[in-house]
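Field notebook, page 597. I keep forgetting to write these up properly, so this time I am using the form the group agreed on. The chain and the ligand, zinc ion, are recorded exactly as supplied. Prediction of the bound pose follows.
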Amino acid sequence: MRLVAVLALLFIAQFVLAESKPKPTVADAERFMAEAESRLSDLGVKANRAGWIQENFITDDTVALSAEAQEELTAATTELIEQAKRFDGLKMPPVLARKFSLLRVATTAPAPKDPALRRELTQIAASLDADYGKGKYCRKPDECLDITAIERIMGESRDPAELQDLWLGWHKVGAPMRQRYSRFVELSNQGAREMGFADTGALWRAGYDMPPEQFSEEVERLWQQVRPLYLALHTYVRAKLAQKYGARLVPPDGPIPAHLLGNPWAQEWGNIFPTLGLPEKSSGYDLTALLKARNLDAKGMVRYGENFYKSLGFAPLPETFWQRSLFTKPADRDVVCHASAWDIDNKDDLRIKMCIQVRDIDFVTIHHELGHNFYQRAYKDQPFMFQSGANDGFHEAIGDTIALAITPQYLKEIGLLDKIPPPESDIPLLLKEALSKVAVLPWAVVVDQWRWKVFSGEIKPAEYNRAWWDLRRKYQGVMPPVERSEADFDPGAKYHVAANVPYTRYFLADILEFQFYRALCKEAGYTGPLNRCTFFRSKAAGEKFNRMLELGQSKPWPEALETLTGQREMDATAILDYFAPLKKWLDEQNKGQKVGW
Ligand code: X8Z
Ligand code: ZN
């Protein structure tokens, strides 16, 4: 045969072969997605059950079983993402296209395709979570403290030596995680790259209906909006601590030592409220004392939480919630005490897992966790791919929005408080609130600033700890009580690092919850100062809230936000308005003080 004829044949064969592998159609894509959703849902339920048991009964076996279930889910997700590539470029109806783009960002721990590497990754992840859960500091041979006990004592003690000892003791849990953590970073980055992302951090930032770079700019924009408020609070608190502990321990123009703020991570400072020198009882009431006076137990506190949601028109929690949740720390075994909310079967098997202590901040956390559960139930009829928060910040903000409505007026209505405090109490009450809501802002930026840089390689394993403290100093203005080194791994002493839970969600939540709160107050017909608003019993507010919740992740988040607030942007003016009277007061108190460090 002549060469021309051969070439012609080859030319034709190419089309014949292409014909035999037809271009996928929208119907193919629909079928693929329906199967993917059902497979991921089934494996997700299995992984939830295994995870629940692992975190409630930490043993080598439960850790292994949970890692296995997680591995199956991760393997399926990775495979489906790979297979979904054949639909790239296909014009799909918007709902279907959204499902495909959500599938790509469905995992926070992307795994390599290589099964051995994937197994290594899931085992590391489960072991880090378990190490955190088992973490203890034995300050005496017969006195070993877990994180719940350490948080309690650091909340109550004002003895700097004891605080330093506990701080150092708890931070020891991090060091053994260092090697595994850096291996985890390598492996998950490989997984992210195989999926087409620059690194795992870029994958995390891709979950916000905008390009990852734009999301980083959003976080920075919002942080700059709230930074002056944080600086005012920092200046005031530092001056009070310098008075109390002396300028040698607390330099009046430097960062605050991180062990003196009432919390192992210096993330929420509410516990040091009594040391800030305001007249005793100036805020009019002490919620911890009120809860104790009623002899409330853990379950009783959760009932109050549920009642708030019911008052808005939400259906009661299912009976199984009460039977299956963990409310108090078991005496005889290791559990992960870090509070969490679970939706085991994507239907109605809702649970919380918490080691509740009878005190004000746990009352708030209960409302926080229930927010996750009520959101989960509100979107349960969405297709599987949309059964999630509009973004992860929304999920974290729901319960906090309800908790903002725990005002004196509300406490009086439910019979916990006898008398509503006079308006002079507003400043102390706002200060107390700011110690949690404002103090946490830079911390909630730092955790992922660190991880984003770790995943991108800008922070190398040999500088993990130094970079951590550089960021904490830069954003929070705090410093470690003693010199730290690369033999330490302080990020691992925080649950979300050990458990690989992204953290920017809490920063977003802290901004969003005030937007939600402002909108619900308006819906409830409230017109007074924002900080005194409660929308308890407002069916109108509940209905409006539910309209956003039931959307799940079916629409880009600006649409969900608009449903409730009329706004399409995350906007810090709500939190700034709420704290405006306090900011004015702080600025007066801070006259003559150096701001910053
Ligand atoms: O982790 C939580 C919740 C569980 S989703 C208890 N939070 C962050 C933390 O504890 O670090 C709530 C506030 C910030
Ligand atoms: Zn949460």
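OBSERVATIONS:
- Residues 37-135+176-196 form one domain.
- Strands lie at 137-140, 143-145, 256-257, 340-343, 350-353, 478-479.
FOLLOW-UP: compare against the apo run.
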